Amino acid sequence: MTQHPDLSDVAALTRKLVGFDTINPPGREADAMRYCAGLLESIGFACRMVPHGPERCSLIAQRGPEGGLAFSGHLDTVPLGRAPWTRPPHGGEIEGDRLYGRGSSDMKGGIAAFLVAAARSTSATGTGVILTVGEETGCDGARWLAEAGELPKVDALVVGESTDNQPLAGHKGALWLKLIAEGRTAHGATPELGINAIAALSPTLARLCAYQPETLHPQMGRATCNLGTLHAGININSVPDLCELTVDLRSVEGVSHAELTAAVASCCDADVRIETLLDLPAVWTDPSDPWFARAAETARAVTGREVSLACATYFTDASTLKPALGAPPVMILGPGSMDQPHGTDEYVRLSRLAEAVEIYAALIASAG
Questions:
Q1: CB burial class (10 A; 0-12, 13-18, 19+) of residue 91?
Q2: Which whole number is the average pLDDT over 20-30?
Q3: Three-class SS state of 140
Q4: Structural domains in the chain plus CATH codes
Q5: First-to-last CA distance in the chain?
Q6: Which percentage of the chain shows pLDDT scores above 90?
Q7: Average pLDDT over the chain, rounded to an integer
Q8: What whole-number distance in Å separates Cα of residue 60 and Cα of residue 317?
Q9: 344: Cβ–Cβ under 8 A, 6 or more apart, which residues?
Q10: CB neighbours of 46 closer than 8 A, spacing ≥ 6?
Q11: Whether 134 contacts 52, CB under 8 Å
């Protein structure tokens, strides 16, 4: 078995992964996924590609017996945005301690670090890798894997999202709702002949402006509600016959999405319809869980830094993967900085990449 040379240098591997344009939409993750499969096969992993359509597939890889530690990552990235980049977004340019490129922090640097750590490992215990498509658009790839029953059982899961290598015990859930009020169109000069959908939704909007969930978790913080978008009308001189409001709720352990939906519904007039756009539950592992506590101490031993956060505000594939994998303890830990995902001139620090390799290697070694 000949190990691929790209597995010897985490910065070089991160640059290679950044070089794949996997902006979602449309995704096109298949080439990057096949490349990762080749790397994993070179270090003894059995790889299974799971297609999701043209140029899209996820990857499930296992070395040793099923179970043990698994690592999760996604290969899609968000669009570049309208602001101009000062460096090529897929060039992987290095300046000082920073490696620039779309996905460098979120989260191709984390994937590269785990692959290099796995290459260094001589552990005989089971090690798994789950690489997905479509995380940025609502954990699509993870959901497709779960719905197809393609996932193994694991003992613990590490999600390599951006945490500055801090071990986080969970993340908030995301519940996105669309509220719809309908009316009847008419000429703007004769509004009495129509039913204005904006006016129909306005009492509901006013109530929701004053609403915030009451649930407060001692470590995850407070559940939140944000009114995201409001769309109505086709032109200025017509009575609008449709008004749509989107609501972004972020949940914590202790409140269900059914309860949050019911709370929003209680703010709505009877003729306002509610549609669910996204439903990803919160993820939480008690920090006193034996595996999590040991893994967190391993991370601190490498970084020398104390944990200042308990939970991420963003969602991850763990929302879908944790229940599908048999509800293992989950740690979110990756080399990206928490202020870098989705930003212009996104970067990951080389020093954080090196730290992540050491942390992941130590977690693999201690998994048995």
A1: middle
A2: 97
A3: helix
A4: 5-171+282-366 (3.40.630.10), 175-280 (3.30.70.360)
A5: 23
A6: 94
A7: 96
A8: 14
A9: 80, 81, 83, 84, 85
A10: 61, 62, 63
A11: yes
Tokens of 196: 């204005």
Phi-psi region of 342 (alpha: psi -120 to 50; beta: other; left: phi over 0): left
**DSSP code string of 334-359:** -SS-TT-TT-TT-EEEHHHHHHHHHH
pLDDT per residue as tens digits for the range 279-294: 999 999 999 999 999 9
Answer left, alpha or beta for residue 212, where phi above 0 means left and psi between -120 and 50 means alpha: beta
What are the tokens at 267? 């703010």
Buried b (16+ CB within 10 A) or exposed e, 147-183: eeeebbebbbbbbbbbbbbbbbbbbbbbbbbbbbbbb
Q: pLDDT tens for residues 57-80? A: 999 999 999 889 999 999 999 999
Report CA 267 to chain centroid distance, whole Å: 30
* Number of C-beta neighbours around residue 326 at 10 A: 13
Q: Which helix (H) or strand (E) holds 227?
A: strand 224-232
Q: Would you please indicate which residues are annotated as catalytic (active-site) residues? A: 76, 136
pLDDT at 1 over 60: no
Both tokens assigned to 212: 């915030």
Give the side-chain half-sphere CA count within 13 A for 206. 7
